[in-house]
Design goal:
The structure is a homodimer of 194-residue chains. The model of chain A has no long low-confidence stretch (mean pLDDT 94). The first copy, chain A, is of the alpha/beta class and 194 residues long. In chain A, the strands form 2 sheets. A 6-stranded parallel β-sheet of chain A has the order 5-4-1-7-6-8. Chain A has a two-stranded antiparallel ribbon with strand order 2-3. Helix content of chain A is 39%, strand content 15%.
Amino acid sequence: MDGEKKRGRVDLALVHHPVVNKNGEVIGSAVTNLDLHDIARAARTFGAGRFYVVSPYEDQRQLTREILDHWLQGHGSVYNAKRGEALSVVSVCDDLAGLYEQITARHGERPLVIATSARAKDSEWPFSRLRRHIGAGGSVLILLGTAWGLAPEVMDTVDGVLPPIMGDGEYNHLSVRSAASIILDRLLGRREES
Amino acid sequence: MDGEKKRGRVDLALVHHPVVNKNGEVIGSAVTNLDLHDIARAARTFGAGRFYVVSPYEDQRQLTREILDHWLQGHGSVYNAKRGEALSVVSVCDDLAGLYEQITARHGERPLVIATSARAKDSEWPFSRLRRHIGAGGSVLILLGTAWGLAPEVMDTVDGVLPPIMGDGEYNHLSVRSAASIILDRLLGRREES
């Protein structure tokens, strides 16, 4: 990055409530072990800042802390130190209001908050615009939904929504692990000279 | 794709043997349920052809077939038909020789076979070149390794290797699920107008 403006910070949050189930009802989802690993590894690879795991359930936050302890201090840290290096970017928090407060306190200002959705229409934040925003020094918090995605009420708290990730067809039912990885690559991946 | 040359076929194979463990020893790995789901969902989203699960172990192939049956014909097909739509692209096979035979018999010629590696140097197949190859009608089979990656002997059977997926830094320990998703997006993802 020598000679260039320092790029902005990209943080991620994986939201377990409020999200919707397949019938569109607002629910809270359980924490999935591989979400933590895969998204933390992608965050670390692409140089994201922190990866916040948002759950209102104390047992789920405790489970998350136990997984982190295993890889950061326990047997996992001996077995595979690279995994701890990735999982060291994970923070746990209770809800979106707490997340926005925590991140604002940490960095002195609220970042641009961008939601993700497989169903978004007419996004004003195509990936290219958000990549330019970050490249120009702007910071962003990306919200990822578990289950069938972020509940509609979340959209009232954000500044924009990324477009869905699509191939040639209409099927776009990616796992949140895949979507997070692709989003980080599109925003922060090292570009080939072509 | 109206008015354009039809793009080539992209198939994927997830290799469970021969791969290496963290000490670089050649091993066979176990099938991971979420590998099947995540990579099949990404394959279906990006319009890949088939997703081959390669394992020399009959119990692992049988486990894979049972997972597929659950989602294609069992309770899973009622609970979430979209998942069966993704998993319908999965085929099971014994080893790389059998895979190359099967895919050659199916399509009448051997596709370009490209390996993936987090450690590849000096790739002659940057993503942009492979994307152009596919766009011009060329077909490709992408080999993905489980555990700590494809064994060196696999490299003698392939036509090239993709470069590692990198961010700004040197850490690039992505899960195979993340790597597969990003590779498909880079090769087949719908590009924004920017």
